[in-house]
Structures are given as structure tokens and as C-alpha cells.
């Protein structure tokens, strides 16, 4: 596939979405460098390294201290920031990967009994792991370093993209509001940085529930239910009330201005019921399409826009991968 993108840097390339981006980019003939805190290649839950991992340049670096990998930024045609956390107790990632329902429940409920400042959580290695550090600050610092890095003298992929993997607001109240707030603050901060930099563009990927039958087995049953809900909602005439519309009405009547929160948790639940889930490979394909400046992608990219970018001709409401998730 012809592309103006020759080389990219993926922050968090050995993670769930990051690894899918690396794989998809390689399939398009793009050179890929991954930066992560460990610098280790992606491994499956069983410890296997897929064949494609040998073609990625795996580097170690700290996203909160981008000077540790600043030498990699010049001459890359784009940066994809996939680092982030849904729950501040990062053990949830292992639980989802292993399909361990009990461990996942423990991660979800731990926050109700935990103490201390959640924005100053640290891992065993001493690194900050809170929402602000991982979801917001790391993206802002990497973006700042990228904007300061020199581009090639004849960059065919101008303006150079900084792609930030954000999220749709679908997880409240199960997940703390600070999760989505930190994501939105990152988007706003990146957009402000882009002002005055005509040779750069910010892209904010907002997936809904991202699933994969084998890598994240617990996500597939939930994805199937949410996909069915989104399909039903899309077929109901606007004149007929739906669960999501009722929730939005209740949310609008109960929300008060202030505190930086513009919607209630009921709006988040309504989004979950009406926005279809998306397969991780589809997210990666949309990111690769967004990297190519010929597509002129800027700003927020929601699920519907992602499907347009990957050429899916459906109505944008049901994910064709849910029913055949095992084939991926």
C-alpha cells in the first residue's frame, strides 16, 4: 500500500492498542520504533512473541521524560501515543488479558477502599501511574518534544501528525470520572500546543469499548451485548424514546454547571448503550489511515469516523468483527 508515511514512533508499542498499531503499520511497509518503560517487545499472554515483533525497533524510554528518547523523534513522519490506564491499579490489564473475572472485580473495587492521593500513585519501580501522569502529562510532554524536533528537509508527510489515543465517555460511573477528564485535558493541551505550528496536526482517536477475543477474552461478551444495543438504538425512529435518550434526559435535568464536568454519569451510560464497540485491529487501521497526511485527518476521530477511514461501508452502528471475533 503506497503511503507518504515512512517511519513512525509508537509510545507504548508493547501494549494492547500500541502493539496492534505496530503490526498494522508494518503491514503497510512503515518502519516502526516503539518506546516503553521496559523496552521489551510485545508478548502474548502465554509469553509468545509473534513473528512481526522482530521487525520493530524496541526502545526503552520514559514518556514523562521524553529527553530519554528525544534522539528518535527527528525524521519520524508521525508519533502515536497509546500510553494510558483505565484503572489506576494497573493489575486490571493482566486480569483482562488472562480472563480472570475475580481479579478484574478486585481491581474495580479496590479504589473504594484505597487511601492516599490517587494522582500520585506509583508502581513498584517508583514510576507515577495515576490518571494525570499516564493519560495527560505523558502525552503533553511527548507532544512538546515532538514539536521541538526537526523534521526531514523534504518530509512528504507534512503536516506531521501527533496521534493521541483518547476514549469515548462510556465507562462512568464504574470507572472514576477522572479517567475521561484526564483524557479530555490531554486533547485540549495538545490542541493548544499545535496552535502556531502549521507543519503539525493533532489527531484524537476516541474508541469506545476496544475488544479482542483472544488477547482480551473478557471484552468479547460485553462487546457483543453493547453491539446489539447500539444496533437496536440505530434502528429505532427518533420519535420513539430509547433507553439512551431517557438517560440523557435524566442526566440533563440532574447536571449542574461547574466543577469542570459538563455531563452526568447517565450520559456516559447512554453513550455505552448507543456507541458500538470496536475491534482493536480496526482502531489500529484507523490510526494508520490518520497518519497519512493525504487523508487530512485532524481533531477528534470517533468510532463512525474510524470506520469511514478504514473503508467499512456499513451504517456505522454495528461492528462486523463482533460476530466473528474469533477470526481475528
Give your account of this protein's structure.
With 328 residues, this protein is an alpha/beta fold. Helix content is 38%, strand content 12%. It is built from ten helices and nine strands. Helix 1 links the parallel strand 1 (7-11) and strand 2. The longest helix is centred in the middle third of the chain and has 18 residues, at 131-148. It is globular. The two termini are 21 Å apart.
> SSE order, as H and E?
EHEEEHHHEHEEHHHEHEH
In one word, what is the shape?
globular
Distance between the termini: 21 Å
DSSP summary: helix tally: 10
How would a textbook summarize the main sheet? Answer: 7 strands, parallel
Kindly report the average pLDDT value: 86
Q: What's the total count of β strands? A: 9
Which percent range fits the helix content? 25-40%
Structural class: alpha/beta
| Strand line-up of the largest beta sheet | 3-2-1-4-5-6-9
Protein name: MIOREX complex component 2
Organism: Psilocybe cubensis (Psychedelic mushroom)
Amino acid at each position: 500500500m503506497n503511503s507518504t508515511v515512512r517511519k513512525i514512533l509508537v509510545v507504548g508499542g508493547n501494549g494492547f492498542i500500541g502493539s496492534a498499531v505496530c503490526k498494522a503499520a508494518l503491514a503497510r511497509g512503515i518502519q516502526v520504533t516503539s518506546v516503553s518503560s521496559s523496552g521489551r517487545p510485545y508478548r502474548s499472554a502465554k509469553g509468545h512473541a509473534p513473528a512481526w515483533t522482530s521487525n520493530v525497533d524496541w526502545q526503552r524510554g520514559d514518556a514523562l521524560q521524553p529527553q530519554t528518547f528525544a534522539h528518535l523523534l527527528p525524521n519520524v513522519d508521525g508519533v502515536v501515543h497509546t500510553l494510558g490506564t483505565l484503572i489506576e491499579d494497573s493489575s486490571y490489564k493482566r486480569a483482562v488479558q488472562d480472563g480472570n473475572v475475580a481479579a478484574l472485580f478486585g481491581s474495580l473495587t479496590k479504589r473504594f477502599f484505597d487511601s492516599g492521593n490517587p494522582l500520585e500513585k506509583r508502581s513498584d519501580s517508583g514510576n507515577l501511574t495515576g490518571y494525570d501522569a499516564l493519560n495527560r502529562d505523558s502525552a503533553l510532554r511527548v507532544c512538546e518534544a515532538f514539536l521541538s524536533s526537526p523534521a526531514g528537509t523534504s518530509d512528504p508527510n507534512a503536516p506531521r501528525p501527533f496521534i493521541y489515543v483518547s476514549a469515548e465517555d462510556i465507562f462512568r460511573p464504574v470507572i472514576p470520572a477522572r479517567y475521561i477528564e484526564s483524557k479530555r485535558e490531554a486533547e485540549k493541551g495538545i490542541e493548544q500546543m499545535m496552535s502556531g505550528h502549521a507543519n503539525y496536526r493533532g489527531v484524537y482517536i476516541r474508541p469506545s469499548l476496544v475488544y479482542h477475543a483472544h488477547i482480551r477474552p473478557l471484552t468479547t461478551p460485553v462487546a457483543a451485548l453493547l453491539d446489539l444495543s447500539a444496533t437496536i438504538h440505530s434502528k429505532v425512529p427518533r420519535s420513539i424514546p430509547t433507553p439512551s435518550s431517557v438517560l440523557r434526559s435524566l442526566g440533563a435535568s440532574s447536571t449542574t454547571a461547574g466543577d469542570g464536568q459538563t455531563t452526568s454519569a447517565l450520559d456516559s451510560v447512554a453513550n455505552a448503550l448507543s456507541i458500538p464497540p470496536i475491534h482493536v485491529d480496526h482502531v489500529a487501521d484507523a490510526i494508520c489511515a490518520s497518519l497519512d497526511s493525504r487523508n487530512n485527518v485532524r481533531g477528534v476521530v470517533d468510532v463512525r469516523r474510524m470506520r469511514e477511514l478504514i473503508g467499512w461501508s456499513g451504517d456505522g452502528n454495528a461492528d462486523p468483527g463482533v460476530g466473528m471475533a474469533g477470526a481475528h
